[in-house]
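Fold it.
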Amino acid sequence: MLNKTVNSIKNQDMLKLHIPTEEQQTIQSIVNTFNKHGFECYLVGGTVRDFILGHENYDYDFATNALPDQVMSLFKRVIPTGIKHGTVSVLLNNRVFEITTYRSDGKYIDGRRPESVSFSSSLKEDVCRRDFTINGLAYDIEKNEVVDYVDGIADINRKIIRTIGNPMERFNEDGLRTYRACRFAARLGFIIEERTFNAILETRHIAKLVSAERIRDEFNKLLETEKPSVGIEYMRNTGLLDLFLPELSQCYGVAQNRHHLHDIYYHSLYSCDAAPNDDIPVRLAALFHDIGKVATKRIGEDNDATFYNHEVVGAKMAGKIMKRMKYSNEDCDKVNNLIMSHMFHYTDDWSDGAVRRFMRKTGIDNIDDLIKLRLADRKGNGSREGLPAPIIKLTERIAKIIDDENAISVKDLKINGHILMEHFKLPPGPVIGKILNELLEHVLDDPDKNDPEILLSMSKDILEAVQEDMRGD
């Protein structure tokens, strides 16, 4: 029988985990399948941790002493997703469940992966190869008991992140674990235990070997937490931030002007916290929106700081950062647009045409996100919250323009390039684009001109002017 410890949780009933009713039957059937064929099967890792903490579970990971080919023989629908490392995905009731054979890892040679993997028959051996004690728990569904070989329950009670075994060994094995420690601290509201913290400082040379893609994925998970600032601050204090995001690290201690309570670094972090955690590009834009201030800072005659064009510089910097971290072009473009646009200054004397031009420049699809960024920026300031009255009025005007279905882009015009080519017997070329863009300028000022007959009439005059310019050239 396996030895079980309950550590510092006084009420043992707290260890009786309750699987949601809608998942209970499926999970029980998986375990029963293994048990009736003479195999062990446990829920493991973050699944157990989150059950203990009362968090929602979306992924259920299992560990078993059955070998991968044996696992595949037990179920009808399986995918050998990571069979080299003992992982098989079982498809059951429209869900995917990862089931991994107990294993022990060979020597880590590159700070990223073991050179070899050996399958094991021991749950304890499998648990002890994992990263942190809070992720080293297993759950016996049949007995409704938690199996704890690594004092993980005690560390959950103490709210600490601690490696299983020697932290220097764990981090030398896989440099990504240092980033994961910071992410778990933010996600769970835990602190990193002192020896573990110091080991991160001592193993940055291993963390430096981690690929940009793996760091990006871990960073995205951090951005999905309630307060990514906690994890980012751990990264700064351990030197990890200097490795993959030095541009943000350099913002630390750079004072702003009298309108801000925080330096550029903390303002960026708190703005990121204030942005919605279900939208990674907006959170990135909030984190990077003032990153250009370090390079553009000047002290004026009144001894206060100015940061002219920091949004232009910052957008370029953010683009380089995101390309370095292998973000998609779509995400890069969106963040660039938001940072470039975040300094807009609306006043009541904006005409309706000016509002429509603002919408065109920003892009209708980006306006809601730009407002979210401004809201986060204001909250991150430290002394103000909520949208100021002028921006609220601007959003109302934008909503009305959208309701009125005003033309905002060339594709909203009541004629298109094909109609122009047919009507004026023109070949495809830049002249068509010039006519359409000129028409849009007129329609932005007067939406009533977005009528096919009126547009064709204006197109004749525009075409003549364009052809005259071309003859002059």
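Residues 238 and 251 are 16 Å apart (CA to CA).
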